[in-house]
């Protein structure tokens, strides 16, 4: 149960520009319709009373977000759909602001931040709602970002964030969070002298190459056929969220097993073996629950995204603001994924998909007109895909104490009601990875059995 303490709006601090317009690129268009959102929860340990929270923490949080928005103006702006089906753009004008809600919850903070199975529906009360779409001069105006800060008295706080995915990818979103955390922890003066690498790079010129003009037109023609609000997700009241740890020693053992069976496979990483293990366990869980009638040699598919910033020519800086990812689809026979060492076949499929799509970037551009279909496929809009991964261990965020305490847990709530799991670096032990899943309780139990079985073999 959540009790709202305050509704307010945060305006960018003085010192920034008065107006900013940023066109979407063909990589942003892949993320339309605008109803597709990132939903993220950050839990911080902070034993503070409601009185002290409202008196001291609330003003500090407001001020830090205001200072951060000065450097990330698009997050206070809107996504604009010009009339006559012209290309959408991100627009900020002086006076735009970001909605911020402060709330209080009686839920058990320690229970919510555990790794065990927890009721998924509870977490949605900590996710803010974006303001509704409005019409200004016949233009749909879509707010981009909303934030909610929920206090668990004498235990901690949760910062819930929601933003339009067509505006930026996870890399950008986490970069903006790092910028805010740096300002909040050290102050703007310290940030100004040492945080320049966190400032967003807004120049879209490298992605407006004449070679891609036709591609951009193709993607926009496909994207504008989709409804602006996007399809609503049907969230199951029976879903639970759980976190599974992949220890570093298990990662190394899985890599050895894949390399031993496929010595010429060049892309064997923590990402491929961890995702391969999850993919194989998900197939086994489906089979054990008799949720799927698999044909012996039927192919299964796994969706993931690869960051293109450093792979373009010339490369884009890591702080590029926007979407800059490529959809990849891995394939493997379900009969192989069901085997005891099914993760080996899964990791092989993921590694080969990466090599084909990302490392052979030239051929990928030649096939780029099919990317919109690949995106629909990866998002589960086509039924053949079993599972995919959202987020990445590279989206690393640490906050070691300060005015809002220690960052204890990150939950990617966007995965609830989807075929995706989250993957991130452990906040507790360097080198370990954490997998976040949202599944019906019985399917989660089946998955956990197969997941832990392989990990125990590697201990």
Automatic annotation (TrEMBL):
Gene3D superfamilies: Chloramphenicol acetyltransferase-like domain. InterPro entries: CAT-like_dom_sf, Plant_metabolite_acyltrans. It holds the Pfam family Transferase. It comes from the Eukaryota. Keywords: Acyltransferase, Transferase. One of its GO terms (molecular function) is acyltransferase activity, transferring groups other than amino-acyl groups. This is Uncharacterized protein.
